[in-house]
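Attaching the record inline, Q. Sequence:
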Amino acid sequence: MQRKTFVRALAAQFIAVGGLFAGASGTLHAQTPVEVQFYYPVAVGGPIAKIIDGFAAGFMKENPGIKVTPIYAGTYQETIVKALTAHKSGTPPVTSVLLSTDMFTLIDEDAIVPFDDFAKTADDKAWLGGFYKAFMMNSQTGGKTWGIPFQRSTVVMYWNKELFKEAGLDPNKAPANWAELKDAAAKLTRKDASGKVTQWGVQIPSSGFPYWLFQTLTTPNDAILANEAGTAVKFDDPKVVEALQYWVDLGKAGVHPPGVVEWGTTPKDFFEKKAAIIYTTTGNLTNIKANAKFDFGVGMIPANKRKGSPTGGGNFYIFKKATPAQQEASFKFIKWITQPERAAQWSIDTGYVAVSPAAYETDALRKYGRDFPAALVARDQLPFSVAEFSTHDNQRVTKALNDGLQAALTGTKPPAQAMQDSQKEADRILRTFK
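Structure, as predicted:
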């Protein structure tokens, strides 16, 4: 009897001591912040990195139990390669901003989880439903939300008002359609005494993201390049060929630079008055505002059969191999950083489109829009915008299209042949997804 009593007492002591250790361990655990590695697609340093660092610091101040570490991973292409390499080696980022068009690739790699699993409260669900519909076209598939819009954009047209005046054009009226664009570009093109062009009428870049800029011509021509499921493309559609022919013809008319036009130097060509009209992302708006030493206009992409531009830019994704605690922490961070006030400030600081109508209702963005109406053009273009081109095995299919575009623009293939060849290659790649 005494032995049983002794054993019980000893057991009780073990339980008490165990409980004490469990409590201590719980305290230690509570003091260890949840680590959220966050891959972000810029090179180290620069103004955007400072803004992101500021957001991370602000979030951690409000959420001391979470440590957000931004990792600046280079270009979008470099960032997805790093993220997927880390995923395959078992040490992925917890969250990353990658192209919205990477959605199908990330799903195919089984690398990400849908946000619907984390949106449990009424407030979470209202937040998830509060983004612009145009941005959700590249964020949802199969009835699930895989990406959250963050640094999103559309392509817009910028024009030099001083050069318009000099050419006898109304500086406050942008070309509204293809015919007006070609006519204005002819009046804006200038040559020196030897006949060399010193100022191009219009410049649409065709390196870096040729497919994206091409959508500024296919969309107004009422052509959609891929189906919603990302399993089929229509590169050889006559309306697509007609859009490419228009682009090639601008070069043949001598009002657009010949061959492949560099994405990266297009804003600089605009600052230096080497191009009177350019097409580029609204994400360049703050850059152009800071560096153009002349009055400029921002307008919607010229229409043909309809208005329209593709959306573009990056989404937040949550990685599958992160721990449940890390996934919950990153969900909290993503919800925090996309709140209307922060989305508004991000838009003002960078030129990207604020991702929700609520952001445009904030005092900060209302005032900015009144003082600088050009900042509202991209938002006003959203009702006419289409999804950025994206398919399964997206990088290979996009390369097939880009190769065809560059072949036509350099004159190595006629537009119809270039698009037929791109179609054949894309069909071959996508065969397994049908």
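The chain has a mean pLDDT of 92. The two ends are 76 Å apart (CA to CA).

More tomorrow.
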